[in-house]
Model the fold of this input.
Amino acid sequence: MDRLTDELDEIQSGIRIIAVTKNVGADRTEEAIRAGIRHIGENRAEGLIEKRGKIDADVSWHFIGSLQSRKVKDVIHLIDFLHSLDRKSLAKEIQKRAERPVNCFVQVNVSGEQSKHGLAPEAVIPFIKELEAYDKIRVIGLMTMAPNTDDEQKIRQTFAGLKKLQLEVASLGLPYAPCTECSMGMSNDYRIAAEEGATFVRIGTALVGSESEA
Ligand SMILES: *Cc1c(COP(=O)(O)O)cnc(C)c1O
Done:
C-alpha cells in the first residue's frame, strides 16, 4: 500500500487508489483498510452487499462493474461512486431510486473493442447534455478500461483519449457535470494511467491479491 502510494505520488500527486476487492473476502478487505485504503471497489451487487454488511469503516464505496437496471435499487443506497454510467435507461432508473445525488463516472469505450462496455467517445457529450434533467446524477468524471494488449502505445493512447475528453466535458462548465475526474488504470497499467492524468486508479490483484486463485 505505502509502496504503491509512493510510486503514484512520484508520477502525479493526489491520485486516489481504489482497492478492488471483488476477488477477496471481507477479512482481506478490512486488512487493506487498516493499511490505509480509503476507497473500496466492487463490480457485482452481491459482493458489494456482502462487504457493506460486514464492514463498518470510514471508507468510500465504488461500484465499478456494469450495472443492470434491475439491480439499481439494491446498490444505489450503498455506494458513494458509480463508475459505469453508460446508458439512458440506467440514468432513468437511478433518477427513480436514488434519494440523493450520486457521483457518477460516464464509462467510455475509448479503444472501440467490441467486448467493452461504454459509450463511443463521440456519444459522450450528447449523452451528458441529456442528463441535465436528472438531478440525482452528478457527472464527476469519465471512466475507461484499457484494451487487452501488451502494446503500451495502444494503452497509452486509450488513457490519453479519455483525459482529453474529460477536459473537454469539464470545459463546458455544466453545473451538474463538473467532470474533474478520470477513473483509469488497473494492476497491469496503472503507471501508464497515472502518467496520462488518472485521478482514480482501480487496483485489485496488485494490491489485495486474489483469494479465488490462491
Ligand atoms: C477487476 C477490475 C479492476 C481491477 O483489476 P486488477 O487487474 O485486478 O487490478 C479494475 N476495474 C474494473 C472495472 C474491474 O472489473
